[in-house]
């Protein structure tokens, strides 16, 4: 079984935000929520870099460890998903995540803390595959259709890679050899410790 | 099939785990050092080695800590919907008063300089001003539409600032008890807010790592000071009025020059997000706590790293320097506030490597017990004395009229409810969700679609909530 992983090659990301737009469009993500975003560091200064960031579906996901209501689970492909019916919107996962992935859409109900929303690796959620409930709560289940996340498929420079972790690592390794330097795979070591690159 | 332990052995195992956690809190040597006897018949300080500095009384994780100017009193805010006022001078800490009138978790607490007033704010989006002596709620400031995560107060006690995940920060006039300016322009959540040393400006930090300066009177955006890229969670004004102290999602810690907008000092970073921080002009110290449990303390003149501590049980969400500047209170996922004696540093002995908290249990329980531990225990206890969590104790819940347990601050919906909790109503509560079954309840929206899991949970509750259960 493939172990799904993301890799963002910061040497290639041009901050076009196509990944962000593709994600929002594919899943009809509400206004104010960005399951994926592009972070630019040292903006305007030497050493400026942009990195496309979303939930990395970490091997030992810190969000899962701190959730007080056990709403997270990991699929047999390594994708970290959560059950919005169980989520109480406490925000603990936000504070645990090194990628700032958990999002909290505002809701109108008094006393409600809302439900956390995040990248699903285009793998839907605990509802039946392709059901209306699954789409409303979690977005499109592209993995069940045999497709990979749209953000990576849309990436014009192929900075963002998604798929089987071994294949992703091989592609990046070849790039590093070809260009003669690495250091672009931001977050890989943190999300998947011990998996090399 | 996994053998199911009987009820008594299950509870004994849970208590053994909890005791193991409690007995490995830093500061364990402090009682011997201070010569303070331990015990006293309450939960505080009855563990081997003495835990005389530990603040024990909340029924949920502690998200915020503040100490009075002289360090003799403390405030803590918790997931259990309460703020507690503590006596923290010499001797064993004790609870002075519990402030229960919140509709959701309390994320931020503050003393207001120059009086006996304090502030609390949290997930319900309200900022509350209290009289500390009488316990009276002076004013509930409303305006935020989402959770408030940070509070700041001007040095003269005139203004309070709240930062919220609705994308705004707000100014509250504590003299006239009126709403002040709304600080807009943030693209996403505002994670931190601080008032300038002179009291004229408010600084905010948001999810996108942008630090802005606003006029405290008019709310006018004066300038964007800095853009970090990664979110900034911690922001404090430094003495002298020319720099800010910040900590970010990427683990970065540093100072910002308010004039140039450049990073002044970049300090030793945390490997995980920075979640808490404190600056003390009195003790010339600044400290940060991270998601990985690391606490770092610097001298704010030389920026030498003076102390470093790793809390082995997870994130440090809140912190406050002790009155003598030689120790630090900190809170995280546990129900108590721990104490770390920095100077002289005391060894920290970890008796157990990775002790799961009650809501982190993964096995060794029946399916129903596991459902309760993983999904309900953060808010509810099962025994007769467990009323201080976010929800009421479930002791003898079967046959109890809704909203009728004395001492718990129910919502009007439940107070006015007429039905009785039984297998059917509890099943419907989780099948439909609290927002549908009892609209207006303070209970978070939570459903369990799986009928088998609901049945297992109810079977467990029927047994565990009985007298002697």
Q: Give the N-terminus to C-terminus distance of chain B in angstroms.
A: 24 Å
Number of helices of chain A: 7
Can you tell me the CATH topology of chain A?
Alpha-Beta Plaits
Helix content range of the residues of chain A, please?
25-40%
Shape of chain A: globular
| CATH architecture name of chain A | 2-Layer Sandwich
Portion of residues within helices of chain B: 10-25%
Return the average pLDDT of chain A rounded to an integer.
Answer: 91
Inertia-based shape of chain B: globular
Q: Which residues of chain B sit in consecutive blocks of at least 5 with pLDDT less than 50?
A: 1-50
The helix tally of chain B amounts to 7
Structural class of chain A: alpha+beta
Q: What's the order of the H and E elements of chain A?
A: EHEEHEEHHHEHH
Radius of gyration of chain B from CA coordinates: 23 Å
Assembly annotation? heterodimer
**Biggest interface, which chains?**
A-B, 36 and 51 residues
* Strands ordered across the widest β-sheet of chain B: 1-28-27-26
Assess the beta-strand content of chain B as a share of residues.
25-35%
Largest sheet of chain B: 4 strands, antiparallel
Q: What do these coordinates show?
A:
- The complex is a heterodimer of chains A (197) and B (469).
- Chain A has helices at residues 18-27, 62-66, 92-96, 132-138, 150-154, 165-179, 188-191; strands at residues 4-8, 37-41, 49-53, 72-74, 80-82, 160-164.
- Chain A is of the alpha+beta class and 197 residues long.
- Chain A is globular and about 50 Å long.
- Mean pLDDT of chain A is 91; it is low at 108-112.
- Chain B has helices spanning 7-22, 30-34, 367-376, 412-415, 423-432, 434-437, 451-464, and strands at residues 55-56, 62-67, 73-78, 83-87, 94-99, 106-111, 117-122, 127-131, 137-141, 148-153, 159-164, 169-173, 178-183, 190-195, 201-206, 210-215, 221-227, 232-237, 243-248, 253-257, 263-267, 274-280, 285-290, 294-299, 305-310, 318-321, 327-331, 336-341.
- Chain B has a 4-stranded antiparallel beta sheet, with no helix packed on it. Chain B has a 4-stranded antiparallel beta sheet with strand order 2-3-4-5, with no helix packed on it. Chain B has a 4-stranded antiparallel beta sheet with strand order 6-7-8-9, with no helix packed on it.
- In chain B, a hairpin with a 5-residue loop joins β20 and β21 (263-267).
- The interface between A and B is large, with 36 and 51 residues.
């Amino acid at each position: 079984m493939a172990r799904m992983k993301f890799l963002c090659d910061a040497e290639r990301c041009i901050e076009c935000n196509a990944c962000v737009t593709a994600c929002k469009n594919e899943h009809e993500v509400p206004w104010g929520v960005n399951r994926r975003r592009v972070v630019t560091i040292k903006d305007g200064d030497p050493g400026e870099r942009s990195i496309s960031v979303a939930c990395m579906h970490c091997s030992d996901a810190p969000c899962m460890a701190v959730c007080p209501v056990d709403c997270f689970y990991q699929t047999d492909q390594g994708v970290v998903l959560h059950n919005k019916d169980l989520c109480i919107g406490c925000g603990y996962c936000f504070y645990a995540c090194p990628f700032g992935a958990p999002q909290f859409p505002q809701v109108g109900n008094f006393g409600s803390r809302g439900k956390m929303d995040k990248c699903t690796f285009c793998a839907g959620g605990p509802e039946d595959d392709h059901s209306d409930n699954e789409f409303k709560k979690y977005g499109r289940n592209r993995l069940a259709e045999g497709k990979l996340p749209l953000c990576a498929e849309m990436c014009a420079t192929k900075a963002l890679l998604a798929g089987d972790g071994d294949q992703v690592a091989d592609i990046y390794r070849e790039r590093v050899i070809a260009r003669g330097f690495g250091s672009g795979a931001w977050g890989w070591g943190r999300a998947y410790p011990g998996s090399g690159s | 099939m996994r053998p199911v332990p009987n009820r008594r052995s299950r509870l004994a195992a849970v208590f053994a785990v909890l005791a193991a956690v409690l007995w490995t809190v830093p500061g364990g040597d402090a009682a011997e050092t201070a010569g303070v006897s331990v015990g006293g018949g309450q939960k505080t300080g009855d563990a081997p080695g003495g835990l005389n500095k530990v603040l024990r009384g909340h029924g949920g994780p502690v998200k915020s800590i503040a100490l009075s100017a002289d360090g003799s009193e403390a405030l803590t805010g918790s997931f259990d919907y309460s703020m507690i006022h503590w006596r923290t001078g010499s001797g064993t800490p004790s609870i002075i008063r519990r402030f229960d009138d919140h509709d959701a978790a309390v994320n931020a607490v503050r003393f207001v300089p120059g009086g006996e007033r304090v502030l609390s704010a949290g997930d319900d989006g309200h900022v509350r001003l209290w009289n500390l002596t009488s316990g009276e709620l002076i004013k509930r400031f409303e305006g935020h539409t989402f959770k408030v995560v940070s509070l700041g107060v001007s040095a003269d006690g005139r203004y309070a600032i709240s930062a919220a995940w609705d994308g705004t920060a707000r100014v509250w006039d504590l003299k006239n008890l009126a709403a002040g300016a709304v600080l807009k322009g943030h693209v996403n959540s505002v994670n931190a807010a601080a008032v300038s040393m002179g009291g004229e400006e408010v600084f905010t930090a948001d999810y996108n790592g942008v630090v802005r300066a606003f006029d405290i009177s008019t709310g006018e955006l004066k300038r964007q000071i800095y853009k970090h890229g990664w979110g900034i969670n911690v922001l404090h004004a430094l003495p002298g009025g020319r720099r800010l102290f910040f900590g970010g999602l990427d683990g970065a810690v540093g100072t910002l020059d308010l004039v140039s907008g450049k990073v002044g000092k970049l300090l030793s970073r945390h490997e995980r997000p920075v979640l808490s921080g404190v600056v003390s002009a009195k003790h010339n110290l600044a400290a940060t706590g991270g998601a990985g449990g690391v606490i770092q303390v610097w001298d704010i003149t030389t920026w030498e790293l003076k102390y470093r501590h790793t809390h082995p049980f997870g994130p440090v969400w809140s912190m406050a320097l002790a009155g003598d500047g030689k120790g630090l209170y900190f809170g995280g996922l546990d129900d108590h506030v721990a104490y770390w004696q920095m100077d002289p540093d005391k060894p920290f002995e970890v008796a157990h490597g990775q002790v799961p908290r009650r809501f982190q249990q993964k096995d060794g329980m029946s399916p129903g017990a596991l459902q309760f531990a993983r999904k309900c225990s953060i808010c509810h206890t099962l025994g007769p004395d467990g009323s201080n969590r976010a929800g009421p104790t479930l002791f003898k819940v079967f046959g109890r009229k809704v909203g009728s347990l004395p001492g718990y601050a129910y919502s009007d919906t439940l107070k006015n409810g007429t039905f009785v909790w039984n297998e059917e109503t509890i099943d419907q509560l989780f099948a439909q969700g609290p927002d549908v079954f009892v609209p207006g309840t303070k209970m978070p929206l939570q459903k369990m679609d799986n009928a088998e899991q609901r049945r297992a949970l109810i079977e467990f509750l029927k047994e565990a909530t009985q007298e002697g259960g």
